[in-house]
Amino acid sequence: MSTVTSDKLDKRFNTLDHDNNGWIERGDVFVTARGVLAQFGVSPDSPKAATLINNLLNVWDSLAGLLNPDVYRPISVEEFRVVVTAHTLGHSDGYTQLFQPVVLALVDIADTNGDGVIEKTEGIRLLIALGTAEADAEKAFQAIDVDQDGQLSVHELVAAFRAYFLSEDPQHRASSLLG
After folding, report:
1. Do the beta carbons of residue 128 and residue 39 sit within 8 Å?
2. For the segment 86-98, what is each residue's pLDDT rounded down to a tens digit?
3. Would 105 disulfide with which of 43, 46, 52, 165, CB 3.0-4.6 Å?
4. Cα distances (Å, whole numbers) of residue 164 to 65, 167, 172
């Protein structure tokens, strides 16, 4: 695994380890979901919330299941690197099947006016909810806004998340996506 990939996965791990105990636990999935839902004022009982939570749990169950049939066992940073790499790098179908449904659920939540695109303010709020530092969120948004129209299409956001996980290029526009 390259240093670029390792660094990105470590950053992602740290944003998911909500209690900073060095482990990602199944409960961290719910904390992540609650943060996104709260950022956009979406009720945890809504269909949008259920879709996001179910997709996040599918990611958790799939990744944790690669390590151990007990999907409730915490995952260390080393294990996280191994399972995400095994499931995504050089295996873009793994990304599409596992992570893309989460991205689409995030788009559905962040697109507060239902126009099919993520406006700049929505995008920045989404990036912050996903763990991007507030000071870095606008720069990250601008980097992934490929056509520089001040909004993100579903295609741009899906492509950015895909590149974040699959690109080995430290200069790729999506490298700063999640901080």
Report:
1. yes
2. 776 656 677 777 7
3. 52
4. 23, 6, 8
Write down the domain spans for the chain: 3-166
Residue 123 has a CB neighbour count (10 Å cut-off) of 27
> Which own/partner contact pairs does 30-35 have at CB distance under 8 Å and 24+ positions apart?
32/56, 32/130, 35/129
Count of beta carbons in the 10 Å neighbourhood of residue 15: 18
- Least confident range of 7-21, 126-140, 156-170: 156-170
Question: C-alpha angle with apex 28: 27 to 30, nearest 5 degrees?
Answer: 70
For 91, residues 6+ apart whose C-beta sits below 8 A from its C-beta are none
pTM for this model (two decimals): 0.85
> Domain 3-166 is in which class?
mainly alpha
Interval 55-114: pLDDT, tens: 999 888 888 887 877 767 899 999 988 888 877 665 667 777 778 899 899 999 999 999
Report yes or no: 88 and 97 within 8 Å, Cβ to Cβ: no
Q: CA 138 → CA 15, 123, 129, 143, distances in Å?
A: 18, 9, 13, 9
Smallest CA-to-CA distance from 74 within 28, 10, 11, 12 is with 28
Of 67, 97, 99, residue with least CA distance to 80: 67
